[in-house]
Each structure stands twice: as C-alpha cells, then as structure tokens.
C-alpha cells in the first residue's frame, strides 16, 4: 500500500467513490453492519459535547456523507471536507439541516482554516489507512484547528485480530484487513504526546471488530 495511490488519491474517481458508498447502503455486508454500529457510537459521543448554535463541527474526511444525517440534527454549524470532489458530490444530499455551512475541498494535513476554528472535529475511517508520519501530520493539523473535542476511529492491532484476519483471508478471498492497524499502547502514547485526553472510548463490536472510536479532549 502506498499513501498517495491507495488513500490520498484513491477515491478521486466516480467508480471508487460509488463503490465506497454502496458498501454501507446496499445489501447485508459486514462493513454495513460495523459502520451502522460506529454511527451509534458517534451519535452518543456527540451528545456529550454540549454544542450551541455558534459552535462549528468539522466532518473530515466526510466521504459520501456517512454521518451527514447525524450532524444535521446538531445545535452547531457543520462543515464537511474531503480531498475528493467525487466523494463530496455523493454527499450533497446527506447534510439536509439548516445548520450545514457547505463543503470544503482540502487535504486534511493542511486545511485553509484558522486555529481553533472548530469546537469538534470528526475523523472516521482514515487513521488505519495512514503511515505513521502522515497520521502524525493529521493529528497536528486537527489539533491546530480544533478548540476542544476530537472524535476519531482507529483500527487496533492485537493477536485476536491477527488470527481473525488470517481465518477470513482463507474463507473470504476478497477480505482486506486494515492496512495500518496500530497497537493500543502506541495509540495511547500518541494521544498523550499530542496533549489529548480520552473522555470516552468504545470498540465497535467486542472481539469481532478491530475498530475503536475515541472521544478526545484537548488538555
């Protein structure tokens, strides 16, 4: 996997963007189920942030608008951002609330916004696709533009997950594991180093999924 080809520029075409959206809107798929569970966790975490109308929330990368309906119900202004115009075109109808302020095409490692512009930034389904140095660039930028809360998902590396991946790769030939899952101790150390405190964390599905969602607060 290369960051430029398989992550940064992977969804800058209609076919790939549509395939991404279809995985959580069509049929009975593991990805659809886990993304639904993740959405419930994000909804819970958002309820703890005590937003008011003047607050701003960033959804980046917004993808095809997977949590657009959740954000449309918040007492806060919403901005959705992605590097892919193709993804944002698919997301146009997902942010239906009057609180939606529009889309921003941008690389998440360098965003054209002021320091502390957002009370909360939401980063889902990204960190497991990033090499270490890019992941740290993302965290540095998110901390710069966020005044208080960060909701972020990670894929956790463990012996149990490695075993599951090996079994699935045998019986499900199209199965693709998270390309850059991370040891929990490394994640916790990273949070501490960036001045982020865990307010709440929850695994999407215990034992069966490597994905964990964190609600973090700037120290």
What does this structure look like?
- By secondary structure, the protein is α/β, with parallel strands linked by helices.
- 37% of the residues lie in helices and 24% in strands.
- The model is unreliable at 172-178 (pLDDT under 50).
- The protein has eight helices and eight strands; from the N terminus they run αααβαβαββαβαβαββ.
- The chain has a domain at 3-49 and 115-218: Rossmann fold.
List the helices and strands and how they pair.
Blueprint: H1 3-8, H2 14-22, H3 30-47, E1 56-59, H4 68-72, E2 77-82, H5 85-91, E3 100-105, E4 118-123, H6 132-145, E5 146-157, H7 159-171, E6 182-183, H8 184-193, E7 196-203, E8 211-218
Parallel strand pairs: 1-2, 1-4, 2-3, 4-5, 5-6
Antiparallel strand pairs: 5-8, 7-8
């Amino acid at each position: 996997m290369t960051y430029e080809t398989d992550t940064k520029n992977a969804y800058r075409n209609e076919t790939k963007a549509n395939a991404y959206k279809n995985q959580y809107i069509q049929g009975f798929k593991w990805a659809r189920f886990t993304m639904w569970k993740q959405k419930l966790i994000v909804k819970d975490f958002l309820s703890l942030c005590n937003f008011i109308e003047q607050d701003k929330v960033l959804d980046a990368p917004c993808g095809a608008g997977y949590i657009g309906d959740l954000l449309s119900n918040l007492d806060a202004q919403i901005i959705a951002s992605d590097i892919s115009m193709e993804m944002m075109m698919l997301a146009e109808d997902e942010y239906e609330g009057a609180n939606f302020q529009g889309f921003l095409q941008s690389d998440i490692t360098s965003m054209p916004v002021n320091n502390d512009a957002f009370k909360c930034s939401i980063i889902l389904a990204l960190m497991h696709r990033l090499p270490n140095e890019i992941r740290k660039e993302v965290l540095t930028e998110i901390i710069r533009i966020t005044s208080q809360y960060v909701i972020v998902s990670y894929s956790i590396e463990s012996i149990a997950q490695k075993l599951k991946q090996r079994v699935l790769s045998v019986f499900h030939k199209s199965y693709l594991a998270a390309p850059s899952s991370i040891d929990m101790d490394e994640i916790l150390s990273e949070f501490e180093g960036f001045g982020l405190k865990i307010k709440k964390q929850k695994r999407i599905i215990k034992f069966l999924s490597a994905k964990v969602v964190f609600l973090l607060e700037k120290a």
